[in-house]
Design a protein that fits this description.
Layout: H1 2-23, E1 30-32, E2 42-46, E3 50-55, E4 60-64, H2 87-124, E5 133-135, H3 137-162
Antiparallel strand pairs: 1-2, 1-5, 2-3, 3-4
Helix pairs in contact: 1-2, 1-3, 2-3
GO molecular function: structural molecule activity
Pfam family, one: PMP22_Claudin
Protein name: Claudin
C-alpha cells in the first residue's frame, strides 16, 4: 500500500508542479472587465511580466512591463535506485521531496491569492480610477495546481512516515 501511495503522491506532485509551470506564462491572470462600459472594443489582459490588448478585429498588441527587477523529485521512490538500496534512506528522501512539494504548493497558493486579493480590492473600490480587472482563468489553474502539489507532497510524506521497512521485491 505504501508504494502505491508514494507513486500516487509523486504523480500528483509532478502534475501540480507542471500545472504551476503552465500558470506562470499564461497571459490571462487578470482580464479587463466590461462592468460599467456601454461599448467595448478592446480587451486588456495581463500576467506577471507583460500586458496585452486585443481589439474587436482580433489584433493583439503586447508590451512588457518597464521594470521586472531583473527577472531573469524522483529520488525517494521505492522503485528507483537513487540514494542506495536502503529503504530508510529512500523514505527520508521521499519525505524531504514531499515537504518541498508542500512548500512549493504553499508558495504558489500565497502568491496567487495575493495577486487575486489585489485584483478584487481594486475592482470593488469605487474610488479606483484605473481600469478594473476580473480574475483570469490562470489564477484558477494556479490554485488547483497548488492544491494538487500540496496533496502530492502530503502523500509522499505520509507514505514515508507510515510505511514499513520491508522490501516489496523480497
Amino acid at each position: 500500500m505504501s508504494m502505491a501511495v508514494e507513486t500516487f503522491g509523486f504523480f500528483m506532485a509532478t502534475v501540480g508542479l507542471l500545472m504551476l509551470g503552465v500558470t506562470l506564462p499564461n497571459s490571462y491572470w487578470r482580464v479587463s472587465t466590461v462592468h460599467g462600459n456601454v461599448i467595448t472594443t478592446n480587451t486588456i489582459f495581463e500576467n506577471l511580466w507583460f500586458s496585452c490588448a486585443t481589439d474587436s478585429l482580433g489584433v493583439y498588441n503586447c508590451w512588457e512591463f518597464p521594470s521586472m527587477l531583473a527577472l531573469s523529485g524522483i529520488a525517494g521512490l521505492r522503485c528507483t535506485n537513487i540514494g542506495g538500496l536502503e529503504l530508510s534512506r529512500k523514505a527520508k528522501l521521499a519525505a524531504t521531496a514531499g515537504a518541498l512539494h508542500i512548500l512549493a504548493g504553499i508558495c504558489g497558493m500565497v502568491a496567487i491569492s495575493w495577486y487575486a486579493f489585489n485584483i478584487t480590492r481594486d475592482f470593488f473600490d469605487p474610488l479606483y480610477p484605473g481600469t478594473k480587472y476580473e480574475l483570469g482563468p490562470a489564477l484558477y489553474l494556479g490554485w488547483s495546481a497548488s492544491l494538487i502539489s500540496i496533496l502530492g507532497g502530503l502523500c509522499l510524506c505520509s507514505a514515508c512516515c507510515c510505511g514499513s521497512d520491508e522490501d516489496p521485491a523480497a
